[in-house]
Amino acid sequence: MDFVKLELDGSVATITIDRPKALNALNPQVLSELAEAIAQVAADPALRALILTGAGEKAFVAGADIAAMAAFSMEDAQAFGALGHRVLDSLEALGVPVIAAVNGFALGGGSELALACDLIYASEKAKFGLPEVTLGVIPGFGGTQRLTRLVGRARARELIFTGELIDAAKAKEVGLALEVLAPEQLLPHCRKVAATIAKRGPLAVAKAKQVINAGVELSLVKGNELEQRAFADLFGSEDQKEGMAAFLAKRPAEFKGR
Ligand code: CAA
Question: Domains in the chain, ordered, with CATH?
Fold first, then answer.
């Protein structure tokens, strides 16, 4: 892969979008390579968490590639949007938590990529925004939907209608970023969170992710039904027996993901 790097460190994988000359902008090739990296992560049963970040000092991802999109027909835009949605959906559907380490500009498709992750941590240098209206278009990789669900309609409208960028502190204030870290602390912090998650029951973490994501689309009653089924299902796992036995024996649990 030319523009996407996948590294494994024990049970934690890191995907780096690596196209610094264009501030890691997403063109069809980058998106296809990202899809390939996500498929590799999805096929690895030993994996417990994924970190997603951007190469270089300046950008996480500065958006979809404007040079590539400039001459798009409506059909081209439809196909590109569908590709972006497929890739971001596959990230959201991964059975392990995905942590966005936002090291710089996360604009347009870059913010949308972060929004498809489960947890967003930002460097002090990060800037977020959905500047698509400055280009005469709207967010095309789920921004109007995922941002609205995360920060609420009012903030989403403000960001999307003005196209203005916000810094990391503001992103934390509006509930987009969980924490703001010194640049050199960003990846170590994300690795620490990933390592903590990796120690937990993997089936439980996967179910929690599934139920949270599915539940957002449902009524409280239906969401709670989903939770009850998932809670009961986990009692059919070895991990539940191990986790509770370990607690009672006052020793750390050794989960197998079964
Ligand atoms: N697409 C293509 N190339 C991009 C890019 C993008 N989204 N963002 C930056 N680049 C390129 C620049 O064209 C420039 O290339 P050259 O050196 O060949 O001229 C290089 O990256 C460095 O960028 P700048 O010189 O502009 O750097 P800067 O520090 O002056 O500004 C920036 C940084 C504020 C991020 C600015 O680059 C910028 O505004 N980028 C565009 C951001 C944007 O509008 N993103 C949304 C895209 S639309 C979208 O994402 C649609 C969707 O929802 C699917």
Answer: 4-198 (3.90.226.10), 202-249 (1.10.12.10)
